[in-house]
Amino acid sequence: xxxxxxxKIRSATPFLLWFHCSVPQETQQVIRHYLDxxxxxxxxxxxxxxxxxxxxxxxxxxxxxxxxxxxxxxxNALRSGGMLFALSxxxxxxxxxxxxxxxxxxxxxxDVAQVLQATK
Length: 120
Description:
By secondary structure, the chain is an all-alpha fold. It contains 7 helices and no strands.
């Protein structure tokens, strides 16, 4: 995966988390195909990591029908963007509970407030 796509994912991590956790699944399905491909891919992997059990990179790649290198790059981009994972990424990946993602949620709320303020 190219660096530009990974940077897009990294900088959009707060939005991707909000989208995954706050937007109803039916609405997500309608909107998702309008998102750029890197965001669609990241959301697909976030879903894989949201399961009740953790998965290895290889298992996530099989679930998502992707190459393990791509999965590793995207998950690392999400992590460097601030997304928290419950377990060690060297062993397995599982999205931390939403309540533990507070820094991202707070940042997103601040960003939205700034945008709204700028449009006044």
